[in-house]
Amino acid sequence: MYKNELKAIKNANLFRKREIYDDDLIDLASNDYLGFSQDEKLFKKAYKRVLNYPTHSPKASMLINGYHQIHKEFEESLSFANQFEQAIVVGSGFLANLALIDTLARRGDLLILDEYYHASGVFASKNSLAKVKFFKHNDPDDLRAILKNSSYKRAIVAVEGVYSMEADILNREIFAVVDEFGALLIVDEAHSSGVIGKNLLGVFDHYSITPTQNHIKMGTLGKAYGSYGAYILASNHVVEFLQNRAKSIIYATAPSVFDIALGLEAFKKIVKKRDILSKKIKNRIKLVNDILDISIDSLILKLEVASSNEALRIKELFLKKGFLIAAIRAPTVKKPILRIILRTNIKREILKKFLKEIKLEI
Ligand SMILES: Cc1ncc(COP(=O)(O)O)c(C=O)c1O
Predict the structure, then answer these.
(1) Is residue 235 part of a domain?
(2) pTM higher than 0.85 for the full model?
(3) 40-62 pLDDT, tens per residue?
(4) From atom 5 of ligand 1, which residue's Cα is the shortest distance away?
(5) How far is the CA of 138 from the centre of ligand 1 (A)?
């Protein structure tokens, strides 16, 4: 039924596969920034935490009886540390973006997304009753011009803390523009939480911005936190509104209790080991600068390549050398890139060797 479509995808070198890679490969492809996905101690702590309760699965929506003490504890830890009034756990980052974009942008409102906002948010915006616009990537002037020249009931702006494919940090001026127009700001911190900021909490922390009633932060557990799931931090009334209207919160089983317990343990480790982890992150950023003369803001190294073929060729070449890197192609990105994650649990010497070798290919 879809033979022709598949043929076209294959002909364009854009066919995607699910693959299980050799465990011996040095993994520079996953978003496991802090190496927590291999931290047995965290896993055991989370397991023990769940065992303290008679129920280990969420069983139902959070609005029925799926809300667990572990969900509540995680939410309270997050809202306190991030200085938001309230937190709410969500099944995944995709579902969190669906909840935010679909619920908050209503008829008569204007929703403005960064042109490189994550696909989950863009997907949710397709069905929005609000007017939807995109502003030039990380460009406060373009955002200001749109806000100035449009009419709306409420304006909602959606941005990322660290852009997953562009690998740059949110421009600080965007906070000021949003304030100037009294807009609501959604910050997707999937790739910034655990990686940037004095306390490794993300972009608010990085810029020392105290959250206001107009700020919303979304974070995922599938990346630096080495688990699965997500959370939304916002003012009381926004969280209460989501809890009463967001379909991906109401009509979904509550997030996995074990995964949230694992997220909570990861969060506690980040708080406790902040200085050691920050040092390792800085070290890796410096290594890239020293060897490739490229300045990066987070643990994502983006290398542009000439074509999808070239991206695949380099990926295959490094697989043979024992390194797994990601070749990202359209439609995820406009121009093909190699996306390399400098995970903090990979020894510096190994990263050094890799960076010297990739230098010869780009
Ligand atoms: C920026 C961003 N937002 C949201 C998501 C979705 O999160 P999740 O994988 O938890 O569904 C991802 C990644 O998958 C992401 O990179």
Answers:
(1) yes
(2) yes
(3) 999 999 999 999 999 999 999 99
(4) 93
(5) 19
